[in-house]
């Protein structure tokens, strides 16, 4: 069975079947629907290798992530694949684990498969590796920063908006002693989140305490170690913001092991709003950065370049919004209720 059979049964030309399978937007929707109905009825599977030879395209989009074990990335991959498949693409996923050698291997895999575009959702990609893609005119998408040039797109995340909401939320509850567990040094997104936190503190009239800016690495273990360090301090903060949700979950676990309660003894805010944040104990207040929005913007940008709808050779930017999601891990500072008049406490 081939497209000639499909064309005969659908009463269309072979060219129309080909354009339909390749999802060319100029095909009449009613005709395309009729062709797909015949394809499904006959359980026909197009030869993707032949399709690539004819079209000169692989219909594959590459996605490079830092680490597959962080729940943020599987959720991003799922959204990326859902949107890509909807538009007739397959995806090729590679994980670097922050290893330059693995990054080189990832790039090689992408080039061997002749992908139509690559979304680089990681950091530390070296210039020579980037040149390998750029020289072959492979469309690229980066988060936050990317080089200038044709086919380069950048997803600009507004870290400040969501983090400002988080700091204002804590300040409104009465917190003035607020710590921050940062992400890996040198990671642009982590540095941006720390900068947004410091700026937001000053906007609320709160002076940051350098002793409460703690090192982290965006892992569960990093959050646990940072919280253990805080517990050893003479002066404890009343709240802590974390550069990502995995760090915040590590903080929650260490508090539990120490026999302390969140938010009674410490309010905690994360960043990312991964799915598991809804079911931690207590449910985690966090800053939402939509994986769906990231995935949709990445696929949209790569399709625009691969399908020739993007005419300009300039770098293009797509804005990604962040917003606070309030749950149960934030509350009044410890002891705050003692300072209220007795009548007010009685009413509560």
Automatic annotation (TrEMBL):
Claim: Transcription is one of the keywords in the record: yes
The species this protein was found in: Edaphobacter dinghuensis
Protein name per Swiss-Prot or TrEMBL: LacI family transcriptional regulator
Gene3D superfamilies found in the cross-reference section: 3.40.50.2300, lambda repressor-like DNA-binding domains
Keywords, ordered alphabetically: DNA-binding, Transcription, Transcription regulation
GO MF term (any one): transcription cis-regulatory region binding
PANTHER family: HTH-TYPE TRANSCRIPTIONAL REGULATOR GALS, LACI-RELATED TRANSCRIPTIONAL REPRESSOR
Biological classification of the source: Bacteria, Pseudomonadati, Acidobacteriota, Terriglobia, Terriglobales
All residue ranges annotated as the HTH lacI-type domain in the record: 1-55
Source organism, top-level taxon: Bacteria
PROSITE patterns: HTH_LACI_2
């Amino acid at each position: 069975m081939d497209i000639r059979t499909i064309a005969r049964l659908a009463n269309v030309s072979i060219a129309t079947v080909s354009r339909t399978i390749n999802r060319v937007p100029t095909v009449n929707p009613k005709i395309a629907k009729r062709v797909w109905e015949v394809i499904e009825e006959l359980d026909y599977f197009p030869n993707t290798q032949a399709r690539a030879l004819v079209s000169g395209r692989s219909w594959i989009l590459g996605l490079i992530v830092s680490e597959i074990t962080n729940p943020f990335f599987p959720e991003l991959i799922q959204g990326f694949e859902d949107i890509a498949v909807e538009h007739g693409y397959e995806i090729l996923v590679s994980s670097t684990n922050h290893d330059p050698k693995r990054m080189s291997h990832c790039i090689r895999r992408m080039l061997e498969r002749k992908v139509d575009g690559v979304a680089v959702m990681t950091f530390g990609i070296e210039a020579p590796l980037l040149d390998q893609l750029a020289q072959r005119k492979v469309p690229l998408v980066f988060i936050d920063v990317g080089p200038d040039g044709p086919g380069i797109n950048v997803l600009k995340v507004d870290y400040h908006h969501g983090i400002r909401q988080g700091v204002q939320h804590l300040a409104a509850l009465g917190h003035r002693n607020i710590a921050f567990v940062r992400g890996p040094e040198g990671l642009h997104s982590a540095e941006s989140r720390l900068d947004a936190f410091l700026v937001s503190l000053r906007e609320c009239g709160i002076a940051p305490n350098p002793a409460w800016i703690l090192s982290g690495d965006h892992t569960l273990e990093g959050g646990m170690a940072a919280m253990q360090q805080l517990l050893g301090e003479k002066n404890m903060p009343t709240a802590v913001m974390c550069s990502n949700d995995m760090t915040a979950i590590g903080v929650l676990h260490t508090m539990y092991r120490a026999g302390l309660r969140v938010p009674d003894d410490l309010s905690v805010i994360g960043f990312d709003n991964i799915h598991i944040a809804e079911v931690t104990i207590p449910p985690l207040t966090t800053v939402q950065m939509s994986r769906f929005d990231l995935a949709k913007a990445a696929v949209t940008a790569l399709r625009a370049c691969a399908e020739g709808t993007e005419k300009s050779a300039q770098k293009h930017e797509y804005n990604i919004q962040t917003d606070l999601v309030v749950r149960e891990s934030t509350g009044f500072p410890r002891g705050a209720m003692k300072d209220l008049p007795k009548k007010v406490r009685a009413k509560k």
